[in-house]
Amino acid sequence: MKKLLPAFLAAGVVFAPVAGFAQESAAPAATTATEGQIEGAAPGAAPDAARGTEAAVAGEPAEAHATPHYPLKKPAELSWTFAGPFGHWDLGQLQRGLKIYKEVCSNCHSMNLVSFRNFEALGYSDEQVRALAAQYQITDPAPNAQGEMFERAGIPSDRLPSPYPNPEAAAAALGGAHPPDLSLIAKARSVERGFPTFLFDLVPWKQYAEGGPDYIHGLLTGYGEEVPAHITVQPGTYYNPHFIAGPALAMAPPLSDGQVSYDDGAPETLEQYSRDVSAFLMWAAEPHLVERKATGFVVMIFLIGFAIMLYLVKRRVWADTPH
Ligand code: HEC
To answer: What percentage of the chain exceeds 70 in pLDDT?
Structure first.
């Protein structure tokens, strides 16, 4: 009996998260089914059956009537330099990612939690940061002596601005959806992996924390597929099976091969652009990721050493006490 209790407790620790996760992963099928963009969608059917292209190719009516479950396709799990307990940033990649953001994404998206001076962490000098900031026109947060708002060239302490005066103006110009701020997007998006992959997260070295960049990469490379017959794409939206909230989104495909020039010899392809900008957005969302992991490792070593020491002290202190 004495041995049974710890065994039950251990089983509880292992299986409780599993059970909780199973419930969570069942929930989105019910909540995302109301989009109404899939014709004839019937609630309550198998969650995975709406997988776009397969259903279209097979022409299978049962699949077409299933409850949609977004995203229609899960992102590929890429290997990132910043993954794992000893992850590090690839500064060359982050600089390329900044270039993509600046030349492409910043035409629509702001990053208003990131200041120009933060880019010194990517290996840029003070002068380079000043020159970059000066290329932007910023509305000064305070009015001038006449009480009027005025524009001036950017300085390193300014945040990366939106090209639109407000979200409504952006939505009006871009098909009804405003482009979200990208400062934290790599932390704000992640696709559930489902059974059995999440079991690996219980293994300390195997935890999956790159869902954000994998999702962004999947989204940027996910355009251009043929639209399955049972899906209607609303005017002004673009079919993308990797989008987390529906079959199509209001962002036109932003990147294509050869669009941005690299000066370090990296391939100028959609695939490489998407990887680089995803890594850059991960850095922006969590600039201290590498330090956090390094500190965590030292803390674990210390705690293990401390636990061993406590045990030895306990044995010494109680050595003379008869029991
Ligand atoms: C022409 C304007 C435009 C450009 C350029 C653009 N986007 Fe977007 N983006 C949008 C709009 C509009 C949305 C909102 C889409 C929606 O919700 O339907 C969006 C949404 C997004 C989302 C959120 C998707 C989600 O899951 O909600 C991400 C991530 C994103 N863009 C990344 C990028 C990146 C990275 C770039 C640069 C390579 C970029 N965008 C370039 C207009 C743009």
So the answer is: 80
DSSP reduced 3-state for 154? coil
Instruction: With H, G, I as helix, E, B as strand and everything else as coil, classify residue 31.
Output: helix
Assess whether the C-beta atom of 114 lies below 6 angstroms from ligand 1: no
Query: Residue 10: which pLDDT band, with cuts at 50, 70 and 90?
Result: low
Domain extents in the chain: 4-64, 91-297
What are 253's two structure tokens? 């495909």
Q: Which residues pair with 152 in a beta bridge?
A: 138
CA 255 / ligand 1 centre spacing (Å): 11
Name residue 31's amino acid. Answer: T
Q: What count of other Cβ atoms lies within 10 Å of the Cβ of residue 210?
A: 23
pLDDT bin (cut points 50, 70, 90) of residue 64 is low
Question: What are the structure tokens assigned to 228, written together?
Answer: 């399955």
What would the two tokens of residue 4 be? 């049974």
DSSP bridge pairs for 239? 248
pLDDT of 71-125, one tens digit each?
999 999 999 999 988 999 999 999 999 999 999 999 999 999 999 999 999 999 9
Question: CA-CA distance, 187 to 91, in Å (whole number)?
Answer: 20
Q: Which residue's CA is the closest to the ligand 1 atom numbered 15?
A: 250
3-class secondary structure, 61? helix
3-state SS, one letter per residue, for 169-206: HHHHHCCCCCCCCCCCHHHHCCCCCCCCHHHHHHCHHH
**Ligand 1 midpoint to CA 36 (Å):** 22
CA gyration radius for the chain?
A: 25
Per-chain mean pLDDT for the chain? 84
Residue 67 confidence (pLDDT): 77
> What b/e readout covers 236-271, taking b as 16+ CB neighbours within 10 angstroms?
ebbbbbbbbebbbbbbeebbeeeebebeeeeeebbe
Residue range 91-297 forms a domain whose CATH class is mainly alpha
